[in-house]
Design brief:
The chain is an all-alpha fold. The chain has one domain (2-18, 32-302): Up-down Bundle (Na+/H+ antiporter like fold), CATH 1.20.1530. Helix content is 79%, strand content 0%. The protein has helices at residues 2-21, 29-52, 55-83, 92-100, 104-112, 118-144, 148-160, 162-175, 182-193, 195-210, 219-240, 246-256, 262-270, 275-302. α2 runs parallel beside α8 (162-175), α6 runs parallel beside α12 (246-256) and α11 runs antiparallel to α12 (246-256). The two termini are 14 Å apart.
């Protein structure tokens, strides 16, 4: 199953690439797919997962996941403030954003869902919910500015983002044992199933739009990819190994090592920042993540540590 899943990954990314290359799909589709995924399909997946998860399991897994996510997402960010203070102003917010935030929706969930059980995926979804809060509550302010209007926009985004609404609704359904109508479950299942195909098609389209090897001469992109995908997960695992169950420490290390987020590219374009830097960091870190974490997940699965 995992081998077929990896082939599915590769084939759908290639289809996304070729669909734009052959002009069957316009390049502008890369501007449409992220909102569709993040605001429709991904919330459906989040809601279903949390609604089906036992309350005790949510508490037992959720508390350490929330704490670990906050620590290992915010610590690199605070370190990056003095580290990049002399960097070009167009690159500074991107590098600070990329330091601790990863691509949970487009990369982590499609990949990890091939290897983890529904129960194990709860860690991934809780991590994603916390990251979503940090994205809008902390990092968006850096791109948007600090005016009163900007602050109101940040509060609105934090409170009304579809992902957080879906998580809250799912938890309430779990707590009060709400049973959804069959037609609604079927509909949400269909939307959730679209997450992986849309995410992978988008990655292929993005590679076609910006080029597969445009990052090769970017020392920053290479160093970032090594830091985020290799060094940070080792640090996370080294710390959590002594604090959490081995399996949980492994999963958190893998998700916290996720590559550059798509929103870095979208925000760079929207707010006039260094879009090329965001793209240069996105592509190699994503390719490295698929290769490294795909291998590690396969080893963990074969060893019986995950997927049981």
């Amino acid at each position: 199953m995992q081998f077929n899943g990896i082939l599915f990954f590769v084939i759908v990314i290639i289809i996304g690439y070729l669909s734009v290359k052959s002009r069957l799909v316009p390049e502008s589709a890369t501007d449409v797919l992220p909102p569709l995924l993040l605001n429709v399909c991904f919330p459906a997946m989040l809601f279903l997962n949390f609604a089906k998860t036992d309350v005790d399991e949510l508490i037992g897994v959720g508390v350490p996941t929330v704490i670990a996510t906050l620590v290992f997402c915010l610590l690199p960010f605070f370190v990056s403030i003095p580290l990049f203070r002399k960097t070009n102003p167009d690159a500074r917010p991107i590098l600070r954003y990329l330091s601790g935030i990863g691509n949970n929706s487009f990369v982590c969930i499609p990949l990890l869902s091939l290897f983890l059980t529904e129960s194990e995926m709860t860690v991934v979804f809780i991590h994603g919910a916390v990251v979503d809060f940090l994205i809008w509550g902390v990092h968006h302010q850096i791109f948007l500015g600090s005016s009163g209007g900007a602050r109101r926009e940040i509060v609105r985004k934090v409170l009304l983002t579809p992902n957080l609404i879906a998580v809250t609704a799912g938890i309430l359904c779990s707590v009060f044992a709400v049973r959804l109508p069959e037609f609604l479950t079927y509909t949400l299942d269909g939307l959730a199933a679209a997450v992986s195909p849309i995410a992978l098609l988008f990655i292929g389209m993005l590679i076609c739009r910006y080029g597969l090897f445009g990052w090769v001469k970017s020392k920053t992109a290479i160093l970032y990819s090594l830091w985020k995908v290799l060094v940070l997960p080792c640090i996370v695992f080294g710390v959590l190994y002594f604090l959490l169950p081995f399996k949980t420490a492994c999963i958190l290390a893998i998700v916290l090592g996720s590559p550059a987020p798509i929103t870095a590219v979208l925000w760079a374009k929207q707010y006039g920042k260094d879009t090329k830097l965001a793209v240069d960091c996105l592509i190699p870190s994503t390719l490295l993540y698929f290769a490294v974490m795909g291998t590690i997940l396969t080893i963990l699965l074969k060893s019986g540590i995950i997927g049981a």
